[in-house]
Amino acid sequence: MTQGPKELAEALTKHHLVFQHSDASLEEALSGVKTFYLGIDPTADSLHVGHLVPLSLARTLMKSGMKAIILLGGATGTIGDPSGKTSERTALSEGEVSPNARALKGQIAETLGTSKFELVNNESWLKRENLLEFLRDIGKHFTINEMIRKENVRERIERPEVSISYTEFSYALLQAYDFFHLFERHEATLQVGGSDQWGNITSGIELIRKKLGKSAHGITFPLLVYKITGKKFGKSESGTVWLDGKKTKPFTFYQFWLSLSDESALEFLPMLTEISDEEISRIEREMKEHPEERSAQRALAQEETSLIHGGKTATACERTTEILFGGKISFKELSREDKRLLLGTALTIELSRKAFSEGILFVDFLTEKGIMFSKREAREFIQNGAITLNDEKITDLGFRLVLKNLPEELSLIRKGKKEVFILSY
After folding, report:
1. Per the count of CB atoms within 10 A, which of 157, 159, 199, 350 is most buried?
2. Residue ranges making up the domain that contains 298
3. How far apart are CA 32 and CA 87, in angstroms?
4. 118 plus 87 within the same structural domain
5. CA distances from 405 to 147, 221, 390 (A)
6. Each residue of 289-314: pLDDT tens digit?
7. If pLDDT is split at 50, 70 and 90, which confidence band does 166 have?
């Protein structure tokens, strides 16, 4: 359904999808735009949860009637964007970036829910550029004074211990030229990017104005950040949550959303889902009245897992979570179907029947498999009655784990109230 700029601006604002815009008002930035572009550098062979906001924004713009261009930075990906970084990125070779770009194409289509977008790769035009001509025709429109005032550059310059190389310093020129190229060749008059991309986006707008005497527009979206550390969700930070099910299991992906703080879950719900305003209001009320139910987290986990891995997988993850953490289903009540579900969705510890046929001291087993950090910790948990094997408390420090004494298919070890480990053999 085609939306006018006023209605679209209201929708984007309501869903917290806009952080900054280049014009006096968001409505003005959207007026007359028929084509927009979103850039993604293929520095990995999978998208991660940090990409869900821009793709949610792109879906909204596309549903308003705009044409989408998704730019894969096959060339800029080998340089590295300094935005949001306090140290030099590891340079990637063309041989690493090219297969990544191919891998992302299908993921982007699945996440957008459509293949009706144009996919371009800046490698196709940047590799053809003559260095001297580029410096003469593009570089002359940028002053060092302007570039070092950009926040992502200034922060690095003010900290000599991290510095910034000329390679990364030049990234803004390349991204500005991408915007110029897509404006001129594809009539893309709007660029969308993360809030850390603001300097690069405005550089492109200025380049278009100086070379063509025409107006272009930019919109940034808020980044998903960890509230405690303030760091954005991204592949460079620890604990990356990938959209590729082989890199991050769907169950782990589901648990990521369940583990969010109430504040984050309520913030992300309108940004990342298409849940109605009425339903979001109901969830907000429920969170106030019954925070222990974690309604926002459960809704996010269901919606995002369904989007990325499908509805059946999301339902399986929900059932697995109930079995492992719900506290209402005992091990003895697990059906064969439940056990197959656990083995298919949750992370498991594989045991060799041959290796454990004679048994192993439970304290040693817990330490060797990483369930406990040390034998001392293992002994303390056992003595405090905080370890169960198939819902039976283990309190004997001399207890030996013998596979022939275990149930068929799998066993469950619970460490305290929140951690569960599945043993498969």
Report:
1. 199
2. 250-345
3. 39
4. yes
5. 69, 56, 12
6. 999 999 999 999 999 999 999 999 99
7. confident
